[in-house]
Write a structure and sequence with these properties.
The chain has about 90 residues and is of the alpha+beta class. The protein has 5 helices and 3 strands.
Length: about 90
């Protein structure tokens, strides 16, 4: 995993919101775009960055594209972050 791409993708609030939308399951690009007041092209750009970071996967069915979370990447990030278990110890 390349954390640089992961954290770059997570740094944008729109991309974080897309991930929250996808936590309940697979959604089409149109469903995702419908949640935002921005162009389809802008949403596609955000989805592309999330895909590059492997935070989401895409599946093409007929003329639609569906996106879902790549849970294994989230697990890897959580495992890495867990090593910083701050408990207020000196």
């Amino acid at each position: 995993m390349i954390f640089q791409n992961t954290f770059k993708a997570l740094s944008d609030p729109t991309r974080r919101e897309i991930l929250i939308i996808l936590k309940d399951g697979k959604k089409s690009a149109g469903d995702i775009a419908g949640k935002f007041e921005m162009t389809q092209a802008t949403v596609s750009h955000h989805l592309s960055i999330l895909k590059k970071a492997d935070l989401i996967t895409e599946e093409k069915k007929w003329k639609y594209v569906y996106y879902e979370l790549n849970v294994s990447v989230f697990e890897e990030v959580m495992m890495w972050l867990s090593q910083f278990n701050f408990k207020g110890e000196d």
